Amino acid sequence: MNERLRFLPYRLRLSLATLVLGISMGIVGIACHYLLESIQWLAFGQHRLDLLQQFQQAGGIRRFLVLCVTGCLAACFWYVLQTRNKILSIRKQIELVGKVNPAPLAHLLHAAMQVTIVGAGASVGKEGAPREVGALLGTCLSREFSLNLKDQKVLIACGAGAGLAAVYQVPFASSLFVFETLGLAYRWQNLLLVLTSTYLATWISQLVIGHDAIYHMSIISWSASSFLQAILIALIVTPLALVFSSLAKWASRKRRKDESILWALPLAFLLLGGLVFFFPIFMGNGQVLAQALSSRQPVPYLPLALAMKGLLVYLLLRNGAYGGTLTPSFALGIGSGYLVTLLLTVVGIHLDPALGMLLGATVFLGTTLQAPLTAIALSLGFTGQDWSLTIPLVLAAGMSYVIRKRCEKEQ
Predict the structure, then answer these.
(1) Could you tell me the pTM of the whole model?
(2) CA-CA-CA-CA torsion for 343, 305, 324, 114, nearest 10 degrees?
């Protein structure tokens, strides 16, 4: 511990560590934002407000070549990195606190590569990188301030939540994520530390990133028929989300790390490049697809497009790539909810497609994250909708939770 900190009271050291963590993660969020935009500018040219337009104007050949080159570089990078260092997940960092210290430089480079491949058009989420950097920073700060093991685990979890909050500007949802997904105990001290770090990181990064909703949707209202829509979407979309979640988890567990990554990952990127040569809507982490649907742009062969998007995420993760599944899950959920609503219209049940998208996203996120409350907050935060929509979203998330638990018992 720093000698200057030795004589400070323990609670003051804990408070200072939390404040430093929140400020630092705000800066990390800004750095991720600039890195992502820089990669997109280098790969596809002039940045535009519409990401799909940027990809379209780059041309099919450029999209194909960028992804092929990215696949080769990523494969070589992760093969070399993992032969020399052990990359610890956030959960592992929490479990092994006080026993194993993560290698800072290796984890920072690992996170930077995740953002890089997303900027180049890979079909994985960017949220994994800032969460992992936040966990790493939480580990370093807790050691520097000589915190006990219990509070070290709390600070690591706070760092992960602050990273998610900083890049997506969703502090409340990120706070719920820390408790639901990372399993932090619901105590007053933990709640105060989590809220401080996530909101502080959001306010700092907001200076550059802004606080506008990521996905632009018209204002949605709900009525009595929304309850029927919530029930039907939960029944139909939850099994689809369970399949995707199982495939993504299996791919992550069986991820290639040996020499085979040197040919398998470039091949996966080659397949993605060949697809986006003709269909740029498959570019990136799912934001393009989700925005197209939420703004009512036509997506031909939507069921096939959703299945293909999920398969691309699986292929990249299985063959050695790292990245999150949050944004892809949101896109798949929006598409699934919209598709179910359209199918109901065919049989004479006319419901709001926009609400269907939001319900589908909530169900899909709640299933893949195993965090229904986080899913509700993320869906509302991503789209900037009013919190009055919480009522039908709670019904959909609750039903989805029951279905998931029952499926888990039967396995």
Answers:
(1) 0.92
(2) -160
